[in-house]
Hints:
Blueprint: H1 20-23, E1 29-36, E2 41-47, E3 58-60, E4 67-69, H2 87-92, H3 97-115
Antiparallel strand pairs: 1-2, 1-4, 3-4
Amino acid sequence: MVSGGSAIRGSRVGSGPMGEQDRGIQAERMTISYWDALGNETVRHFAANLPEEEIPETIDSPASGLPAGRDKNNPPAMAKNEPYKTHLAYVKERRSDEEAKQILDEALQRLRQRRGTA
């Protein structure tokens, strides 16, 4: 004899007195479209009874990773990326030896004041 679960033959596991629409599977939804700067459309679904202030104005577009807004004609601007700096560019930005010595002296003086050995 084979023994299985405790479900009654012909019944669905997990079904109860509530219908599918009460559990959210068939709940009423509204569709909102978002557009990014490249023209990609992203569609999101929200509950129909959700207040307008809880619906986000901007989201991140999964197609491009850019911010996407609800206004198709005026989407959020693309982020400005800083150009890659080479090591030589960082070396050129270094302070002079006099400035470096002054900064070090100030840091040591503050440390001595905190320890009380000034």
